């Protein structure tokens, strides 16, 4: 029961980290409380970021995702300014699409990859219940198996990959920082949805509410409503009606006449943004355990894979040499902050249920008319560039110039989306009540 690395949580982040540590020649235990190898997370809308594709490729997952029917997730975004649908050229320096694939397919796939990696022990049906300490750092994890038997797993590095409510962080006394989230989520799965844009994923910013449709494998489409908490009574009173009305009168909205709802309508009412130091008390945190920000932007799965990769790249060599992991953990923490802190700041800010700020108004409006601004919007939305490059003076100056000089002609919009760009904002249920 002596390992190089013990990872608690065998979902996306934990299984990815275990696979990469195992390939680096380390001995790894993955502690996962779910006993079923086919278990999967149900509170997810399955949009995987394009920026995580290099990590998926390194893991060897892209082919498996495609074999399982995963859908490349091209995106069309509607706001009151019109449609944005970037069309990256052949020499575009970033991944063009990620994937939409349900967690029902993805989670067992990723777990199986870890279980099949030399050096990895996947311990299903084991729950982490406590921590042991050595000179101020976490040195071992106490686990209970499904028969109630207790074990202690000692490690030179313990990794928390146990999700947004991380029990490990709590047991280690690592502070959780929160930022408010003023929307609630409802979503459901449909078959036979007809879409009216060239993209597999559509988002409508109805300000402040947002709705989206994401096409997945096997002809499944997930329809999601994110509405301000002031509308919760309306949804509680008539969930079916309020949910379905949210998809009416959308410019180029999904056609549901022949569609069949194949799940109940599911909800998540509290999505408080959570973050923790990605390394503290000698322990590392990856995936949602380190950062769980608003799912509106579809970032959590991609960042779960990427943070696992950053951690392994920062620490594997040190662990192999049996050197002190503290400097390597500091490197990981810096990478995590550099890559994600700016994104997280802007994401949390928008989850306060505000309208677009001046910069967003500028970029959303210019990207409708200008392919270069649309590409800039795409690179940021897929998280291939960070907040500082998104907000750099040159692209914002270009956006301002586009609006000043080109808007009336509107010649550069993708032809298929041109009419919808002029459609007025449809009335949202509850608008009148809000104005009143
Ligand atoms: C409504 C909603 C919609 C979302 N939609 C998207 C989306 O479209 N795209 C996207 O990228 N992200 C989305 N997300 C976020 C995404 O689901 C998470 O970011 C992602 O699952 C994080 O992966 P993870 O491996 O860090 O944690 P999780 O997937 O949460 O896994 C944690 C694992 O730890 C295990 N565990 C917990 N405690 C213990 C313990 N004590 N002992 C042993 N095991 C334990 C759990 O069983 C679980 O397997 C959404 C989230 C929500 C809430």
Describe the structure.
35% of the residues lie in helices and 24% in strands. By secondary structure, it is α+β, with helices and mostly antiparallel strands. The strands form 4 sheets. Strands 1, 2, 8, 9, 10, 11, 20 and 21 form an 8-stranded mixed β-sheet that branches. Helix 1 (12-23) runs parallel beside helix 8, helix 10 (358-369) crosses helix 11 and helix 10 crosses helix 13 (393-405). The chain is globular. Flavin-adenine dinucleotide (FAD) is lined by residues 8-14, 31-34, 41, 43-48, 127-128, 161-163, 167, 185, 268, 287-289, 295, 298-302, 304. Flavin-adenine dinucleotide binds at residues 8-14, 31-34, 41, 43-48, 127-128, 161-163, 167, 185, 268, 287-289, 295, 298-302, 304.
